Amino acid sequence: IQASIRMSTIKLFFHVGQGKTGSSAIQGFLDANRAKLYADHKLLYPNLDGPDLHQGDFHNHITLFNGSMPYSHVEKELQRIISHCRVSHLEKAVISSENIAHGQEPT
């Protein structure tokens, strides 16, 4: 997904790793290096648990894609990520959840 906003493009990368393929290691790396990725690489690995998407601990984005939230909430969270990127002049964001690969749809 690309969102063109004011002459800039924000790239959303969806990591859809299957279970038992190292997805947790990738998510752990992104979580542990959130601040460095944000500052040095203009990349957001969003923390959806709090008001500051770029701070705190947040391992993966399973709740967005496990079918427990209405689609309107998933869309709202994705828009929040895009808006944060725009305001913060970030170029990319990574969303990671094994549930994307499992094909579970929001309610």
Concise overview:
Helices cover 41% and strands 18% of the residues.
Write out key terms for the chains shown.
107 residues, alpha/beta, four-stranded mixed beta sheet, 4 strands
Structure, described:
There is one protein chain. The protein is an alpha/beta fold. 41% of the residues lie in helices and 18% in strands. It contains five helices and four strands, in the order E-E-H-H-E-H-H-E-H. The protein has helices spanning 23-32, 34-41, 62-65, 71-88, 98-101; strands spanning 2-5, 8-15, 43-44, 92-96. The chain has a four-stranded mixed β-sheet with strand order 1-2-4-3.
The poorly predicted ranges are: none
Mean pLDDT across the residues is 84
SS class: alpha/beta
- Helix content estimate: 40-55%
Span between N and C termini? 21 Å
Strand/helix succession: EEHHEHHEH
Task: Write out the strand line-up for the largest beta sheet, numbering strands in chain order.
Answer: 1-2-4-3
Indicate the overall shape: globular
**Total beta strand runs:** 4
Largest sheet, if any?
4 strands, mixed
Radius of gyration: 13 Å
Amount of beta strand = 15-25%
The DSSP helix count reads 5
